[in-house]
């Protein structure tokens, strides 16, 4: 599902200050927990698809990128990324998802 924001007050593109992620055949920009794609008179709001490379299920892993007691969520210091029907957090080029007493690895993303 794509939602279109008309009259978006920020132009996304190279050098705009937001993290750029390759999404299929185009680049989207992380902006306040949303994945924005420039589209004419505004932006389309996207989500990364659940796939073999970016699964949505339980994928526990040992993560050396943050403390073992780190809990992902709003204000955790990692950018939120829409993924399927949930939100993951960008950590060293990977999607991390809080799940019970561990964090799942929902796969890599290509940063641009």
Sum up the structure in keywords.
single chain, mainly beta, about 110 residues, five-stranded antiparallel β-sheet
Question: What can you see in these coordinates?
Answer:
0% of the residues lie in helices and 44% in strands. The protein has strands at 3-6, 20-23, 26-31, 34-39, 42-46, 79-83, 86-91, 94-99, 102-108. The strands form 2 sheets. A 5-stranded antiparallel β-sheet has the order 1-5-4-3-2, with no helix packed on it. Strand 2 and strand 3 (26-31) form a beta hairpin. The model has no long low-confidence stretch (mean pLDDT 87).
Fraction of residues in β-strands: 35-45%
Intertermini distance: 23 Å
Radius of gyration: 14 Å
Order of helices and strands: EEEEEEEEE
Strand order of the largest sheet: 1-5-4-3-2
Query: What is the count of helical runs?
Result: 0
Q: Main β-sheet, in a few words?
A: 5 strands, antiparallel
Stretches where pLDDT falls below 50 for ≥5 residues? none
What is the overall pLDDT average? Answer: 87
Q: Give a count of the beta strands, DSSP E runs of length 2 or more.
A: 9
Which term fits the overall shape?
globular
Structural class comes to mainly beta
Helix % is under 10%
């Amino acid at each position: 599902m794509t939602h279109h924001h008309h009259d978006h007050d920020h132009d996304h593109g190279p050098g705009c200050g937001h993290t750029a992620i390759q999404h299929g055949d185009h680049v989207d920009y992380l902006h306040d927990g949303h994945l924005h794609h420039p589209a004419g008179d505004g932006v389309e709001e996207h989500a990364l698809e659940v796939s073999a490379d970016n699964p949505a299920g339980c994928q526990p892993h040992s993560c050396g990128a943050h403390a073992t007691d780190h809990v992902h969520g709003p204000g955790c210091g990692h950018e939120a990324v829409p993924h399927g029907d949930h939100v993951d957090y960008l950590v060293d080029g990977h999607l991390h998802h809080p799940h019970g007493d561990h964090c799942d690895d929902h796969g890599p993303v290509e940063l641009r």
